[in-house]
Amino acid sequence: MSNVDVLLGEKRTFYPSKEIVENSNVKQWMDAHDIPDIENLYQRSKDIEWFWGEVEKDLLTWYSPYDKVLDRSDAPFYHWFTKGKYNIVHDALDRHIGTPTEHKVAYIFESEQGNVTELTYRDVYNEVNRLANGLKRLGVGKGDRVALYMPMIPALPIAMLACARIGAVHSVVFSGFSSRALHDRIQDSGAKVLITADAFWRKGKVINLKVLADEAVKDSGIEHTICYQWAQYDVPMRKRDIWWHDLVADQPHECETEIMDSEDPLFILYTSGTTGKPKGVVHVHTYSVGLALTLKWVFDLKPGDVWWCSADIGWITGHSYIVYGPLMLGVTSVLYEGAPAHPEPNRLWEMIARHGITVFYTSPTSIRMHMRFGDEWAKKDDMSSLRLLGTVGEPINPEAWMWYYENIGKSRCPIMDTWWQTETGCFVISPLPIMSLKPGSATRPLPGFNAEVHDPEGRFVVNKGGSLVLTSPWPSMLRTLYNESERYAQHYWNKNGDFLTGDIARVDSDGYFWVQGRGDDVLNVSGHRIGNSEIESALVSHSSVSEAAVIGRPDDIKGESIAAFVVLRMGVESGDELRNTLRNHVGEEIGKIARPDIIYFVNDLPKTRSGKIMRRVVRSALISQEVGDISTLANPEAVKEIENVVKHNNYYS
Ligand code: PRX
Fold first, then answer.
1. Model confidence pLDDT, tens digit, residues 60-93
2. Does position 2 have pLDDT exceeding 80, yes or no?
3. Which pairs from 118-121 meet CB under 8 Å and 24+ separation?
4. What are phi and psi of 633, to 5 degrees?
5. In the prediction, which pLDDT does 1 show?
6. How much distance in Å is there from the Cα of 513 to the middle of ligand 1?
7. Is 632 or 296 the better-scoring residue by pLDDT?
8. Domains of the chain, first to last
């Protein structure tokens, strides 16, 4: 236990001011529904059909009404708002046209080099329509998949919305992923069009995205690559390539929105699982209700707010809380191209001051990184515009929580620690700004969501670590895994109908949840999810490697760092050069974020008698924990070797 844990204990709670409570959106809703207090709200919302039916009335607009809030007959393939006709783009853009929001700024965009551009809702609407018409011209239609490999520039949300407008399914691939990772995702989704950009800036360097994209489309099903000219970087254009500006040059500013079924897919987003193959999480158009509700209630967004979610759109956080959620609420968002501490450590704080940000949402890794720079960097800028703060992606340690609270929020702004996943689509366990907070706890499942912590026998436990499960469906849940419906049903749902999150958590006596991390073989590095076996597959795909075990090791800044134990093929010479080669190889196979921080060469890895590598044992040996009973291992001597190598060969690259 750290000093702050001891200092805070579980009793230390932070209460919201009367002003925050009285002015909050959630309080207003409670008053309108004769709900006297928050306990009553939690109770009433246990009736999820009633709750979601009631909240959607304020948040969604339908082409034609649904007949049933929830159809459970095909569980775990739940159907929400059955037979309703809808398109998320209608809520995000169309309905603002002709209202005062039309001329309001939707995005304040800032490039890494510091140029600021403002796009109104009307600007976004026009550009979305032009591209949507361009996509149609290329033969893209309802149900077709379009891959997007783009930097954090306005063209990315525009491209996503253009796909959604015509009923196409977008599959955004994080721009930090390698060509190989992009190629695999293109092939899996069967995308026929790829949208990319020439290049972008990251930490002052130009990243040549189009060159990587070209490599990825080789031997793929891509018929056209649309390239957005952004960094003015000279790129080769082939026959199947087309510049975005040429494609949209003659296209009108109007394009009819495709009328979709509530349950029609909106996007595929690949995320790491416990096997080497990423999972194609499928979300549908009406996932929108969860985003709009949580943004409105948790971050209490109102028309005058300037919202900044500093995540990358390549992950679910950006999809839900940079693109669709804020546009549905008609608020102004900041979109930033570059790195968080470039050119100076106070880049984020300086931007908060300059743009008058009122609500700011970031990751614990980013907070810990800024803590390390020293408090003086957070004192330079006037951040008095802030009224609420948030975090996502990993457990936040109480030290980081307190630093954020005191240095950024100046002890005035409640921190919303939001727990959720790619699969959940929106926040699930999170405070509301009207409730008391305990640093390090994401508090309780939001109204409309139900969660429990179970022991291995499936019994509900309190004050004890166990598996975090969601005990009822929710409308922004994933509907399936792309082309793998069997895997969806088997992987996520137990026989009692609980959704298995893969996380370990504890519930305290007040019903507050403390999420501790993944309980399965998935790493969480700087809030990015990477499967251990994905990295192992990348390592063994190198001709020098025979076997590999990848382990997450606790890290003060990133949450976890990546350690790899590698068995080389006979006759291959180990050494620093090979370490670098293997790190780069993983970078090329997956992306830089997956490169091991440390690589140990060993002669053998601990295995069961059936030959399965025991990661748990490797991990215990790595972090000097009690290894436990190893008598059932086929090769217990491998454990000693790991302990020795770790002790004497503490190599960091
Ligand atoms: O382990 C949990 C952690 O991130 C995982 C989900 O990762 P991903 O699907 O990439 O989505 C990240 C952004 C939503 C979860 O299984 N996680 C996310 N938020 C929190 C968290 N762990 C603790 N506290 C959180 N607030």
1. 999 999 999 999 999 999 999 999 999 999 999 9
2. no
3. 119/154, 121/93, 121/96, 121/97, 121/327, 121/330
4. -70, 150
5. 46
6. 14
7. 296
8. 525-648 (3.30.300.30)
- Shortest-distance Cα residue to atom 26 of ligand 1: 419
Burial class (CB in 10 A: 0-12, 13-18, 19+), 374: exposed
Per-residue pLDDT of 264-274, as tens digits, reads 999 999 998 88
Report pLDDT digits (tens) over 247-261. 999 999 999 999 999
Q: Is 392 in the pocket of ligand 1 (CB under 6 A)?
A: yes
Average pLDDT over residues 630-644: 89
For the Cβ of 443 lying below 6 angstroms from any atom of ligand 1, the answer is no
Tokens describing residue 347: 């880049």
| pLDDT at residue 625 in the model | 76
**Tokens in use for 320?**
């839900």
- The pLDDT score that the predictor gives to residue 596 is 97
Task: Say which amino acid occupies 202.
Answer: R
3-state helix, strand and coil shares in percent for the chain, rounded to the nearest 5: 35, 25, 40
Phi then psi dihedrals of residue 263, to 5 deg: -95, 10
Instruction: Determine the distance separating the centroid of ligand 1 and the alpha carbon of 503, expressed in angstroms.
Output: 9
Q: In the 3-class helix/strand/coil scheme, how is 244-312 assigned residue by residue?
A: HHHHHCCCCCCCCCCCEECCCEEEEEEECCCCCCCEEEEEEHHHHHHHHHHHHHCCCCCCCCEEEECCC
